[in-house]
Each structure stands twice: as C-alpha cells, then as structure tokens.
Amino acid sequence: MLRAVLAGLSFVCLTAGAHAAEYWIAEGDDVFGSVAVIAARHEDTFVGLARTHNVGYEELRQANPGVDEWLPGEGTRITIPRHYVLPRAPRSGIVVNVAELRMYYFPSDSGPLPEGVAPGSRKVITHPISIGRMDWSTPLGATTVTGKVANPAWYPPQSIRDEHAARNDILPRVVPPGPANPLGKHALRLGLSSYLIHGTNRPSGVGMRVTHGCIRMFPEDIEALYKTVPVGTTVTIVNQPVKIGWTADGRLYLEAHPAALKESGIDGEIVTVEDAIANVSESPLTSLMRAYVAATEERRVDLDWDAAERVAQLGSGVPEAISAVVSSTTTGGEITAADPIAPLVADPGN
After folding, report:
1. Model's pTM, two decimal places?
2. Largest CB tally within 10 Å, which of 24, 130, 254, 275?
3. 329 falls in which pLDDT band (50, 70, 90)?
4. Are 177 and 185 in contact (CB under 8 A)?
C-alpha cells in the first residue's frame, strides 16, 4: 500500500475546509491523488467523515472493511481513499462513473500552473455523488448541460408521487425552494428528460445509490460546480467498476469497485462498446481483463497477475500498482511531486 501511495504522481491543492480538491495531472498520467490515514474520534461516523474529506459513504466502507461505520471507535485508523485512476472516457467536461459513485470535471481552461507543477499538466476536479437506486437507475451515455437553476422548484413526476403516496406521504405537484426541497439550492439541467445534477437537503445520502436517477452532490460541491461549469458542457456517464491506468513513469495501476447494478442507456445509446458490455453484470475478473486489454492496446507491461486478481476481487476502491517492469519506452511527460501521506492525526471535525 505504501508504494501505491508514494506513486500518486500528482499535485493536489485543497481549498479551505478541506471540502473540494483540485488536482493537477501530468501529461501521460492516468493516476492522481493519495491515500490519507486518520485516527477516528469517539464521535466520528462515516457519514460525517465523508463530508469532511469530500469522499463518499460507500467509498469509506469499501476502503475500511471490518470498521463499524456508525461507531468506528476512538483511535481507530481510518483510510481516506483520495487516490484515483481516471475512467476511460473523454477528458473533457464532466465524466460520471456510476460504479464508483464519483464525478470528474475537466475545465476547458486550467488556468496558470501552480509552482512545482510540471508543464503540460492539466486540472481535474473530482467529487463524490449519489446515483439512482436499482429501480430508478441513472442512465449511461453522453449529454450536455443545457441550463443552470438557482433555488430550483421540484416538480415530482407522477411515478414518484405514486411511490410516496403508497407510504402515506402525499407530495404536492410542486415543491417550492426551501429546506423541504430535495434538489437543494443549485441544479444543472441535462439534455435528458427529468434528469439533473443537483444538491440536496439530505447530504448524509451522498455517496450512496439512493436517488430517483438524478446525480446528487454535497451542497458545497454543487455550488462550486454551478459557478464554474458553463452551459453546453459535455456530460459523459459510464459504468466502469474496474479502472486501469498508467502513471507518467510507466507503471500500471488498478482501482476496483463493486459492480454497479445494470443501467439503462440514454435514448438507447451507450457511449462505448466497453460500457455496453460492462452494462451486463459480470465478474470482477472479467472486468479486470476488459480493462487490461483496453489499457495495453498501445503499451506493453509485465503484470503481477496475482496482485491484479487480488485487487479486483477485493474491490476496495484504493488503487494499487500491478506492474513490475515496462517492456517498451514510455512517452509520458515530466513527473510531478507525489502527495505526502497524511499523518496519523485526529480528524479536524465534521
């Protein structure tokens, strides 16, 4: 694990409050960020830690097997999984990977490079999300941001009103802006009927499969996205439980998550053949082989298959190196400094 952490070849800049993180990815790099380890306080829960560290509830559960998510216990070591392999998707606009419950945003203009970041690096911003549960799946495909709405009203469709009525919870035809509105204070309209990227009045559910198909974010995350994402931005939604990517120095990393439930496509169209096939439930090893073939089409590598199978089967969501020696010359750009491992300290607060 230590080797995997030290090889996170990217520069990270945390904003105030440690909520959002902007990462700078070196040219030729698919892997960025680093894992942190903290000591839990007696009052900590995974719901609180998730929001503090801008990770999802399920991400914390996967990275900390055997730890009670509601009562971790004073001094328990908690892994904060902020080390990522990029999905195999266009590196532009917004990319959503439903299998890992995470969004990546590639601004069209990265702005000036911070000191110490390699020339040619570009910015990526990533946030945890919630997606649709089994009976209200989030569709796969490509669309665009068609509008932005502050303080949106919610017009629940009849199917949702019927669902609530069955629980003796009668929804009005229009839920006005305010604390009872599940859309929160900001929403991005998509070129899909009835689908949004929006905030929430219940942030404890972020990082879970709990929505009616929309993409839900922490209030502070959607507010930042609302301010920076222009109308017309592309949105690519994929389902990749197993991701394999290269570092700029030629090492191959594997990140695996439990497979997402079968998803529907946007207007019957899927982004790639990979996603169309992955849309059918398959074993972690099948997903591993599919990702490996895609990642090594143009570059060869000596692979540690035992390590690869272990990571794929574990599904912890934490990337690990699975290559030994690269057998062809790499062409990646200059390597930026790795993130340091966070010291074992008490969490600063929820």
Report:
1. 0.79
2. 254
3. very low
4. yes
